[in-house]
Amino acid sequence: MSNSKSPLxxxxxxxxxxxxxxxxxxxxxxxxxxPKVPGxxxxxxxxxxxxxxxxxxxCMSLSxxxxxxxxxxxxxxxxxxxxxxxxxxxxxxxxxVTGVPDPIIGPKGLRTLLVIRGICGSLGLGGxxxxxxxxxxADATVLTFLTPLATAVxxxxxxxxxxxxxxxxxxEASLVCSLLGVxxxxxPPFLFxxxxxxxxxxxxxxxxxxxxxxxxxxxxxxxxxxxxxxYTSIRAIGKRAHPMHLMTFxxxxxxxxxxxxxxxxxxxxxxxxxxxxxxxxxxxxxxxxVAQILLTLGLQRETVTRGSTGVYFQMLFAxxxxxxxxxxxxxxxxxxxxxxxMSSALCVVLKKREPTPDSTADSAA
Length: 365
Hints:
Order of helices and strands: HHHHHHHHHHHHHH
Helix content: 55-70%
Structural class: mainly alpha
Distance between the termini: 26 Å
Oligomer: single chain
Radius of gyration: 20 Å
Shape: globular
Number of strands: 0
Largest sheet: none
């Protein structure tokens, strides 16, 4: 397929966090200054960032599950406000203290893409949470993991990322295998009606009508579209914006939309009633902040086709953490699914990476 340059990713600007060796002093504002590392780690830094982010996303989800087990339960919108509010405050403080240029409005020439990233990210997160009103956790999880398939197409069509026929076959085969692993772990009731869902609590929802279920699927797919737009816009921005710029716009839009949602739907605010409640809410914010940093760093360095495969590790981490924290013993199908996910992601990581526009520009600098 064509590897012509896309106007979305080829404009001049400051390069934040380049991993290529440079002469002279390090660039100001780079979030990840580091010495030379072994070739494997250097060549797969983006993928390793993304995989690491999924561990913290899994920790965050576990904290949300523990918070929901307390009385009274906290609405998803309030969790979004707290999580993204903490992220917003941390981002702004970091950029002001370290002297990152344009800490609030972002670099000139990229503000439109930053706004798109914020809107798409908010749409993705909101679609996921709202779909859980009508779908089980297992069903919503499987639908959410359609995102890598969509980002592969978006990266090829919108960003003109190199995607040969051989890469297309190998990449899509890996993605399909990973999706199969997710299905085996989540075991949605519409495919495994006689087998209990693997995710605790997912099958205890009240019975929904066909119309409500259709609405839930629609909301989840809207979330997939939003996540696809967020991943693609991050890659389009690349290293021209500081990772904190992307996170600031995302957290700002999410905080505003979730707050408006609480007002429109008249959702009461639940205040902390114990130290455990406060600790879990703080953990959600911290884990979400760290996860967003790592995910942004990874997507700035990876093609969306290759990088989005790493998100499947979140399901693998979730299975392990549930076993350690809640004592949930994974079934044989869960173990098989986890093995498929791990194998597929490792195949993508070990496969020689094709030169990307960003890497080509860096090496020529």
